[in-house]
Amino acid sequence: MSIFMSPLEFVAANLVYTVIAFGGVALVLIIVNAILLRQIIIMRQRLKIFFQSRQAQDLESVIAQQIKRQIKSEKDIQELFKSSRESWKLIAKCVQKVGVVRFNPFKDTGSDQSFAIALMDLSDNGLVISSLFTREGTRVYSKPLEKGKSKYPLSEEEEQAIGRAQEQK
């Protein structure tokens, strides 16, 4: 008998250990196979959701559709920004500050039925309107304003109305 055994003789002599070793390897392979099968099922579910669109036949067409949607969204966002800037320009020119002063132009008679009202935008441009109530009638005056000043003389009440409007920053 020789010191070296043939592979068949070795397996036959160590049959129990060989079966246990192959069983262990088979068990590990079954576990690995189960894990891979689970990952395949999860991937199929994700792909089913991803390719849900009837138009999408492959990944390339899905990516192309997404790129088109993104380009459209970027254009829409730019239009919204442009519209927003135009709106802010218009808003800056709208009446934003109002100051009102009621007064009695005749100290000895009547009541505070006369008034001065200042209507200004963010840059203090606008107008001041004065109404003087008398027994004979009511007179209304209007004076334009640029940066809170008028090229026409302003009464004390008109100045107060402008001051109250400017306080509303």
Automatic annotation (TrEMBL):
Record keywords: Membrane, Transmembrane, Transmembrane helix
Transmembrane segments: 15-37
Region named Disordered: 148-169
Family annotation (Pfam families): DUF4446
Domain of life: Bacteria
Protein name, per record: DUF4446 domain-containing protein
